[in-house]
């Protein structure tokens, strides 16, 4: 028979710009002692406050379930958050109207039986631990690193502050808390890369028993320390009076891989970090001055298609070749990207290159998100002329002079009437302008190729054409660029492949 267990989950999320660089934090608490049992925190890229708050809730509920996997229906979780929107929607008192919130709410509701979870709104001052975890995660993302429990300084003010409004505790057998901490480490390590959030670590405490034989160890712990000096994340609602407005803008994410059409072979990167712009006080701006509020940008999330048979062979594969389909690896990459975007709940539109490998990748994402795929001819890959299907070495051997000229000038075209980089840049820029105008203020997933993605990044940075040869893009990687009303752009992400691991 399952032993009744009761825990408190406090969760929070924030976005520095709304949408902007975002992160979440969650802590599982013993209501009897006020002591933290487990923490979770993660930087999630560009997102809105509401999305980050829902991600914090999902992490907290997952952590609670992992602590006591054998409790079943006997587990009772009392959630405390300072997000009026999340609390009211998850309690069933408010309708979930925004399409970006629906999949996140459904994901949270599926973790535990609805009868096992209760929700309570609390003032922000009573949610400091989760708030600090969220800020630590955002600071880590800003610095291009991963949040680590061992470096966390988030700590409770007093145990009494936690237990003041929590339901009476239901006691379990001695040692159950320590055993649960070990199980949480194993459960979340095994679930990494699936639905479980990354970055969950049990809190240090009493001597823990040996974990089960099948448990995979997870390193890291959290030691209480002084409050961090990080600036608090912006919130959509801190008062219990009125609901926070649901965001009209969805968050962005990332991905990775080398292109079949790569020009200069280079070693596979892990992830190329992009340092976010300085934290704005209002809507994100593209500089450090006091520019006016330009409203939400159009955010283009740039997903490179999954692998084809030509990709690992590093052969030129443009729009003038055989139009290959995704390989088995490429289809798996597309499904992983689809799961990633479904979990984030931020993509509002999907636009694809007309080539088969992109349409297949886009279709996988669209099926998970319930969206249509629009095709734009301007997003197709470069036409590499007679170089199609050849390796870089083969082109050097057969068309050495043409290759040298092509590498030296954006106006030079590949042998046999292919496209120059200048011509590609012109049509890609035209496609960008069409899409930004059509989807102003929205988050759009563009499924395209190496050259168009590099070109969009280069143009956003104002970099010279030779910058194309200094960027690496892995198959199914994610990059992101935000476009503002004054015509300026901000590169938010480059070659992120974390969703593939």
Fill in the keyword field for this structure.
501 residues, alpha/beta, six-stranded mixed β-sheet, 12 helices
Describe the structure concisely.
With 501 residues, the chain is α/β, with parallel strands linked by helices. It contains twelve helices and twelve strands. The two termini are 38 Å apart.
Topology:
Elements: E1 5-15, E2 20-29, E3 36-47, H1 49-67, E4 75-81, H2 84-91, H3 102-109, E5 117-121, H4 128-142, H5 159-163, H6 176-190, E6 200-202, E7 298-304, H7 328-344, E8 349-352, H8 356-369, E9 373-375, H9 392-398, H10 400-408, H11 421-438, E10 443-448, H12 450-461, E11 478-483, E12 489-496
Parallel strand pairs: 1-4, 4-5, 7-10, 8-9, 8-10
Antiparallel strand pairs: 1-2, 2-3, 3-6, 7-11, 11-12
Helix pairs in contact: 1-3, 1-6, 7-8, 9-10, 11-12
Can you describe what's shown?
The protein has 501 residues and is of the alpha/beta class. Helix content is 29%, strand content 16%. It has twelve helices and twelve strands. The protein has helices spanning 49-67, 84-91, 102-109, 128-142, 159-163, 176-190, 328-344, 356-369, 392-398, 400-408, 421-438, 450-461, and strands at residues 5-15, 20-29, 36-47, 75-81, 117-121, 200-202, 298-304, 349-352, 373-375, 443-448, 478-483, 489-496. A hairpin with a 5-residue loop joins strand 11 and strand 12 (489-496).
Any low-confidence stretches, pLDDT <50, length ≥5?
156-178, 184-293
Which oligomeric state applies?
single chain
Q: Label the structural class.
A: alpha/beta
Strand content: 15-25%
Please give the count of helices.
Answer: 12
User: Tell me about the biggest sheet?
Assistant: 6 strands, mixed
Helicity level: 25-40%
- Provide the spatial order of strands within the biggest beta sheet: 5-4-1-2-3-6
Total beta-strand segments: 12
Cα-to-Cα separation, first versus last residue: 38 Å
Shape: elongated
Gyration radius from CA atoms, angstroms: 24 Å
